[in-house]
Amino acid sequence: MSLEPIDAETALELYLADRGNELSEASLKGHKYRLGHFVRWCEDQGIENLNTLSGRQLHEYRLWRRDDGDLNKVSEKTQMDTLRVFVRWLEAIDAVEQDLSQKVLSPAITPDENSRDVMLDSDRASAVLTHLEKYQYASIEHVALSLMWHTMMRVGGVHALDVEDYNPADQCAEIRHRPETGTPIKNKGDGERMVAFSDQICDLLDDWLATKRPSVTDEFGREPLLSSRQGRTNKTTLRAYVYRWTRPCVTENECPHDRDSEECEAMTRDTAYRCPSSVSPHAIRRGSITHSLNSDMPDKVVSDRANVSQRVIEQHYDRRTEREKMEQRREYLDNI
């Protein structure tokens, strides 16, 4: 086999272009970010042609990335698994030796290590939403966090909603994959679904639409459900709302970390994520799924509503203790 010379930066550009139709926008950005470190390492090492890449060099990169990024095992595995996929693609275009991808080593992790335990529990969620209802009723922050908690939607799903997707008469909304107009969703077409709303959520949405929502369209002429004067509220801003309002000092007027409010680095709107107790939208989703399971919502219903498989729920989202699961099963014994 004759290898064709190619540098790391060019290879990455071709790889991303090739995978563009297969991966979601978020996944593509993840690959670009993780493999960008490999391109940087190649430049530092003076590797101008990937044809010469060896298994030893891949191992040296792994050690460098571990130290350079201060990675835990889960993050290291994600980085190296993405690199293995990339090297396998390089094999297909005759850029590296065949079977080189088998030499990309990745740490073995247990299911427990692969699960992220951070979540917003139901008590804290209730405190946050109660605070917003009292002091920020029908604000965009109140609507966004309420939708995330009560529907288990990913931030991309909330971001993708249009006014016309909400049906107040049937008390539901339709989540749709529309990448051509800027709102792809996780799992693409398989992520499309109808989500039912409670009376409380419908009242909140009705009040938001009637009194607070700026009457604007986005650059594609669509009317976003969550909008600002500039158009559709972007996902970065939605994430910032979550970090901001899940800081304990906001709802409890005290800091569990004994920080001085005048010196705390997490006090500004843009640095709220630095609070050790603030959480991401994914932590809201995990907490909501666990709360629903604890409230005896059937696994299949949770799976369909949250658009996640029951296997993934069990491994990554279900934070019930074994005793809690046992006590829930006990309630069915009388019917046997």
Protein described:
The structure is a single chain. The chain folds into 2 domains: 8-111, DNA polymerase, domain 1 (Orthogonal Bundle), CATH 1.10.150.130; 122-283, hpI Integrase, Chain A (Orthogonal Bundle). The longest helix is centred in the first third of the chain and has 21 residues, at 25-45. A hairpin with a 4-residue loop joins strand 1 and strand 2 (172-175). With 336 residues, it is mainly alpha-helical. Helices cover 51% and strands 4% of the residues. It is built from 15 helices and 5 strands. The N and C termini lie far apart (66 Å). The strands form 2 sheets. It has a 3-stranded antiparallel sheet. The chain is globular, with a radius of gyration of 23 Å. Helix 7 (140-151) crosses helix 12.
Strand arrangement across the biggest beta sheet = 1-2-3
Unreliable residue runs: 111-115
Task: Provide the domain count.
Answer: 2
Task: Bin the strand percentage.
Answer: under 5%
Level-1 CATH class name of the largest domain: Mainly Alpha
Task: Return the CATH topology of the largest domain.
Answer: hpI Integrase, Chain A
Radius of gyration: 23 Å
In CATH terms, the superfamily of the largest domain is Intergrase catalytic core
Shape: globular
Number of discrete helical segments: 15
CA(first)-CA(last) distance: 66 Å
Report the biggest beta sheet as strand number plus sense, adding barrel if it closes. Answer: 3 strands, antiparallel
Backbone structural class: mainly alpha
- Taken in chain order, the helices and strands follow as HHHHHHHHEEEHEEHHHHHH
Fraction in helix: 40-55%
Number of strands: 5
Mean pLDDT: 87
Please state the second-level CATH architecture of the largest domain.
Answer: Orthogonal Bundle
